[in-house]
Amino acid sequence: SSVFPSLILVSNPAIQFMVYELTKRKLQYTTESALIVFLMGAFAKLIATVATYPIQVGQARIRSSTRKITLLRCLVDLVRSRGVSGMYRGLETKLLQTVLTSAFMFVVYEKILLLLTKR
Fold it and tell me: What is the pTM for the complete model shown?
């Protein structure tokens, strides 16, 4: 079943927020620049997606498989048949799908935070 990969994939937003906050601290972000927030949000989602994409690929392969297979077995078989790059096939499309949305979300998040803290 693909329940185990789903549980692991819950880490994607956690990684995303952690990378965003670490980047914010590292850059000592204090301005209200939407562009900087957008770029930090895009970077955070890029890192989170690259880190969890092989699990997403494994989950998709498990769901489409007619035989019962574990995530580990699925990923090992994938690496043996297509190499490590096989785990990242289609990543560009996924990044286009998620990075922009996430970057805009962080801009909205920071603007709302700014409104709430100015009161």
Answer: 0.84
